[in-house]
Amino acid sequence: MNKADTMGAGRQTETLGLSSVREAQFGSSSRRFRLQTLVRLRWLAVAGQTLTVLIVALALSFPLPLLPAGFLIGALALANVMLSLWFPPTQRLGPKAALALLSFDLLQMACLLFITGGLANPFAPLLCVPVIISFASQPLRHSIALLLLALACTTALAFSPYPLPWYPEEIWRVQPVMQLGIWFSIASMMSFAAFYAYQVSNEATLLADALAATELVLEREKHLSQLDGLAAAAAHELGTPLATISVVAKEMERDFGDNELLREDVQLLRSQSERCRDILKRLTSLSAASEEHMRRLPLSSMIEDVIAPHRQFGIAIGLVERGDRGSEPVCTRNAGILYGLGNLVENAVDYAASQVTVTVEHNAERVVVVIEDDGAGYSADILSRIGEPYMTKRAKEVERAGGLGLGLFIAKTLLERSGARLRFENRDGDEAGARIRIEWPRAMLEDG
């Protein structure tokens, strides 16, 4: 039996949360946005293009191919109207549909720029907009395809034979070197903005998914802690029908007292119903008697509850208590604290060579728990990013599936919610290994 099979409900909860989040992250539903959002952006583009054409043609009196420009703007407006009529406002676009619509927007914008001066047009950088939208909301492979299309359109604009709308008496010519510079500026801006949008969007998605998994873990832990209340409720609900069965059995025993065969059956039925009532009574009294004991426990007992499941895997776990047990805080049982500390101890056991030490210290103001192991420790690049969701390596030379990813993020988030401050570092001096320091204000830990 491996460790994953014996870690119990907490480890299973993390696995369920991680798998659920990964399905959400990599599934097709996570990269869909509402059609109505794209429609509104398109109407904004229609209004902006129309206003620009009118200002250039009427206010500035520059020569402009009004009919082709109006056709292109009308095509975008017509496509918007058709999408609004054919699909409900809540329709969500899949990656392929989004790529098709954004490609249409890109080509429409490129054609409009092509007949109005190409790269000489000051609005040429607007080709970046569909690409940025795609990288911020769509899967990477679809976004890269749109980026390549945008670069091809930008290249085609460099060969536009149409002049830039300008004063009739002046001829605006862009030298090839300048066109090359404009092409590079648009291409670099497009690539940088797309990469930045993808990074920000991806990190936000990971963080949101990890927080959702944190809530799932916490809810499952709370559910487990409430099973005693559920048992008491079940005992209360079953008490009434059992009492009815007992009364009916007594009546049957009195009515069929002369019948030996029926009397034995009735007596058996009555005795078994009484036995069920006794079991439920003990279950109810056990829940009521142990509720307060389970809700409040000394700090040493809480730490022992955290450590106990991890003593069976060949790594020695030492507990050092710096303080008198007579003055130790009595804590409220908190599912988030138990899960968070258990996850940190489990990570220490996973990466330790032979020894894990848990040191507990308390005084009138604070409570400190320090978890140390004698493993390889944290590498410098990982130490600066510790606690981010979906990290997979602790040190460059140590690679393990699951590593310090979502589980550590959940543990860190739950402990910080309880008021703790966490510090991750490597041990000092010649002692190799990692150290995690968790500190609470004593009053906050006691109040739960």
From TrEMBL:
It comes from the Bacteria. SUPFAM superfamilies: ATPase domain of HSP90 chaperone/DNA topoisomerase II/histidine kinase, Homodimeric domain of signal transducing histidine kinase. Its main location: membrane. The keyword Phosphoprotein applies. It is a multi-pass membrane protein. Pfam families: HATPase_c, HisKA. Residues 233-444 form the Histidine kinase domain. Its EC number is 2.7.13.3. GO terms for cellular component: plasma membrane. It is found in: Cell membrane. It catalyses: ATP + protein L-histidine = ADP + protein N-phospho-L-histidine. Keywords: ATP-binding, Cell membrane, Kinase, Membrane, Nucleotide-binding, Phosphoprotein, Transferase, Transmembrane, Transmembrane helix. InterPro entries: 2C_sensor_his_kinase, HATPase_C_sf, HATPase_dom, His_kinase_dom, HisK_dim/P_dom, HisK_dim/P_sf, RegB, Sig_transdc_His_kin-like_C. One of its GO terms (molecular function) is ATP binding. The chain crosses the membrane at residues 41-60, 66-87, 140-159, 180-198. This is histidine kinase.
